[in-house]
Each structure stands twice: as C-alpha cells, then as structure tokens.
Amino acid sequence: AQKITQTQPGMFVQEKEAVTLDCTYDTSDQSYGLFWYKQPSSGEMIFLIYQGSYDEQNATEGRYSLNFQKARKSANLVISASQLGDSAMYFCAMRVQGAQKLVFGQGTRLTINP
Amino acid sequence: DSGVTQTPKHLITATGQRVTLRCSPRSGDLSVYWYQQSLDQGLQFLIQYYNGEERAKGNILERFSAQQFPDLHSELNLSSLELGDSALYFCASSVGGGASYGYTFGSGTRLTVV
After folding, report:
1. Which of A15, A92, B33, B42 has the fewest Cβ atoms surrounding its Cβ within 10 A?
2. Would you state the pLDDT for residue A97?
3. B15 and B82 Cβ atoms separated by less than 8 Å
4. What pLDDT is recorded for position B70?
5. Is residue A52 classed exposed, middle or buried when 0-12, 13-18 and 19+ CB atoms within 10 A define those classes?
6. Contacts of A109 in chain B (CB under 8 A)
7. Backbone angles phi, psi at A52, to 5 degrees
8. Residues B4-27: pLDDT tens digits?
C-alpha cells in the first residue's frame, strides 16, 4: 500500500523567506509520480509540481522546486521568496504505475506573515 | 479556470435527503475521479470512471453511487444523507492512468447536511 506522510501540520514564515514543506512517502513500486497541490481558503485544488520516480533532475516550476531524495523516500516542496498569496494548505500526493488514484498526505497549512 | 466544471458549488440539505453532484471533465480527459474532503478524514478517494466504465473504487459508502455518461460528464449521487456526509466533494479528471498523470481538479461542491 502507498502512504504519504506530511509531518508539519502548520508552518509560519516571514514574507520573502524560502520555505520547505516536508513529504515522505512509502511504496514498494519502482515507477511512481509525486505531486504537490495547493489549496487556498477558497477551496480549489491547484496543481503545483510533479516529479517522476525515474527523473534524475529535481523538478522546478517558477518559485516552486521539489527536493527529491529517492533513497530517503522524501519529496519536499521548496517555495522560494514566499509571498502573502502562498498562504494555503499544501498537499503532497503519490500515484504508482497502474494505480487509479492519487494518495494524499494530510497536508500542511502554510501561513506567510508580512 | 481548470477546465473541470463542478455544479453546484454549494449545497445545503437535510438529513435523509438525496442529492446529485455533477462534474464535467476537462476536454480530452477520459477519466473522472471523485474525492471527499472532510476535516477528520482528509482527502479520500471515492470512485473512478474511465470512458463510461467504473475502474476503481475507494472508500465509497453503499449510500453513494456514481456514473459517467457517454458525453463523459459524471454524477455522484448521495442518498440517505447523514450529518457526517458534510464535506467538500471534488471531481478531478486526467488523460490517462499512468504514474505521470496527475489530476486536474474542479473547484468542488461544498455539501452541508443539517
């Protein structure tokens, strides 16, 4: 079975600082994908970034990057130069090859302080 | 706009009633997934349809059912509603079922059972 663990229920960061949101995963599959989603207070789920298990380079999308450490089974999200609009819930998720569903962690609530 | 349309956005109904949530997937996506997000359970996978056929079932109660129509829109039917069914219900769609395919989420239907 697949499992995602996000150990930080909440984080508070000053505006313009970088922030790392932790995510560890558990799977015995070799082929899998890791995803991060953002859920602002309005409720919608917004895709941020994807990392494949065979990707050698860490994924980057603008201010978002994924620190992928396969041996440690971690896929931390790094947000550079945080902005007030980054305040939201952040979910790490995983999908293994052949599976029909994304498995989500419990989320981290990020608050950016001015 | 993610391209996944969910209606209605908000729904308030009484216990014991039945409601139908509707989802139109993003153009070109054949898979539709339903998720329930509650405060205590997090994001729970309910069911998936691919091109009209049920493909995977998660933690979906027997009181709940879904279907996907020939035009690929999907409906989630919730009956004999209980207070505990109050949650945010997401529909998501994807092109395929491989590990690299994440979901595009709709904005959700917030169901309140009173």
Report:
1. A15
2. 78
3. yes
4. 95
5. middle
6. none
7. -90, 150
8. 999 999 999 999 999 999 999 999
